[in-house]
Amino acid sequence: MIQGLIDKGVIRRIAAIVDHRKLGFAANVLFCGKVPRDRVVEAGEALARFGAVSHCYQRETIKDWPYNLYAMMHGKSMGEIQRVVNQFIEAEKIDSFELLPTEAELKKKPVRHRFN
Q1: 3-class DSSP string for the chain
Q2: Which of 11, 68, 100, 113 fits a 20 to 30 Å CA distance from 38?
Q3: Does residue 43 form part of some domain?
Q4: Counting Cβ atoms within 10 Å, is residue 18 exposed (0-12), middle (13-18) or buried (19+)?
Q5: Cβ partners under 8 Å of residue 30, min gap 6
Q6: Is residue 66 part of a domain?
Q7: Does residue 107 sit within a domain?
Q8: pTM metric for this prediction
């Protein structure tokens, strides 16, 4: 039945949300890096290959905030994340970055649909 709905284009994707805390991932950080414009795609692709990275994207810079490469990183400890950051910034020669740890998860509710 599901395959038929996929074939008809009714269902485009099916996803699951995993509770990362129950898996032991207690540390979350948003990495913000300043990367030369001509290297941001290459650096972003390298960053996205790390297993600790769940989201990686480029943004335009704004006044007083020069960062254009962002990645959400998850680990079992801040030390684990810091090792990934160190490896990345050394390999890509990144000298300006910020790490913004998650303070609190404000909203995360499962999407619920009713099919009649």
Answers
A1: CHHHHHHHCCCCCCCCCCCCCCCCCCEEEEEEECCCHHHHHHHHHHHHCCCCEEEEEECCCECCECCCEEEEEEECCHHHHHHHHHHHHHHHCCCCEEEEECCCCCCCCCCCCCCC
A2: 100
A3: yes
A4: exposed
A5: 70, 71, 72, 73, 99, 100, 102
A6: yes
A7: no
A8: 0.77
Average pLDDT, the chain: 91
Q: Which two tokens stand for residue 48?
A: 């996205």
When comparing pLDDT for 103 and 77, which is higher?
Answer: 77
Q: Could you tell me whether strands 27-33 and 69-75 are parallel, antiparallel, or unpaired per DSSP bridges?
A: antiparallel
Q: Which pLDDT value is given to residue 111?
A: 66
**Residues 6 or more apart from 22 whose CB is under 8 A from it?**
none
Domain of 58, CATH number, reads 3.30.70.3460
